[in-house]
Amino acid sequence: MRHRSLLILTAVLTTGALTLTACGSRDDSGNDGSGGDGGTQTVVIGLDAPLTGDLSALGLGIKNSADLAVKQANSKKYVEGITFEIQALDDQAQPSSGQQNASKFVANKKVLGTVGPLNSSVGESMQKVLADAKLVQVSPANTSPSLTQGQDWNGGTKARPFASYFRTATTDAVQGPFAAQYLFNDAKKKNVFVIDDKKTYGAGLAGTFKAEFEKLGGKIAGTEHIDPETKDFSSVATKVKSSGADVVYYGGEYPAAGPLSKQIKKAGAKIPLVGGDGIYSGEYIKLSGAEGVGDLATSVGAPIETLPSAKEFVANYEKAGYKEPFEAYGGYSYDAAWSIIEAVKAVVEANDGKLPSDARAKVAEAVGKVDFEGVTGKVSFDEFGDTTNKQLTVYEYKDGNWAAVKSGELTS
Question: Signal peptide: which range, if any (predicted)?
């Protein structure tokens, strides 16, 4: 979710009702689950996300939300004889750091599952390390289709690379085309300038958007790649202005998208910038300023005001006293952690109340079979490890905040 979610309860989560099993409240004793008196065996859930740097707003929301799931599981003694802990490591949105963190998780024999990362490129770097150790990975935010369906996913051959990898967020194979359909059919935009940051997430998202927009009959006014580390996009802004485009689509994340939008408007192109879940953050509003008003973003899930279960999650998050907001992926991170907790429960109960010697492999297998009502709705995975929940929402930046415009699923 975004930081504004804590203030006015407008953020994104997918539809569904939450049972006390999945989200729950703290028990009457006030125990927050952080102690070790709830069980005789400790299970660690590894958490990888950017906890520092430009994307730390999203990463800290992921960490806190997974931590909340662990605390509530302990508070209710959800798995008899087991106490859960979080081991949180910072990847700084760098694939090399994510890979190193994966090795650290593998080395800690108490780690039976991992939540994260945020970035698809980081997820890519971690997959094999974790898979070789039969250590399950559940990302709340990775959206690149290749992570679950292989590099040739768009060429007619879908093949799951790693059976230990799952995600609770839907993919860019859905998100990009969903944005294209909204812009062409609803917003009546016919001429788009497409920009991406050349990263796994950004380039992939821009590619699926572009293909669908052209399929619908839209025109591509121009394409450009940028280096997100530089904040001077004046040359690209000039190209956008002279292209005659009536909208810009950006594949990338908010640290570059905000300044890009501001500079495009200042160059004289008074047209909206549209992006995916990577820009759907309160940080984008700060970075794009007044020039960003009217910009659009798609993100996974449905608006929180439609979900009683999500409201309960927000209340529990506030009650826990975390300093940072849960941002876009808070609910998905909670559900990712809870899918591991559910898997541990199934494995322990099938083994006379104890962890088996091959617990990692058993937990990874059990995650693929989970089926529960979570913060984000029904949590289950298909044969590729992708979430079965495909809900998306378009948001518009107006009145100093993101406001939901349209929710639904991709039209075939």
Answer: 1-22
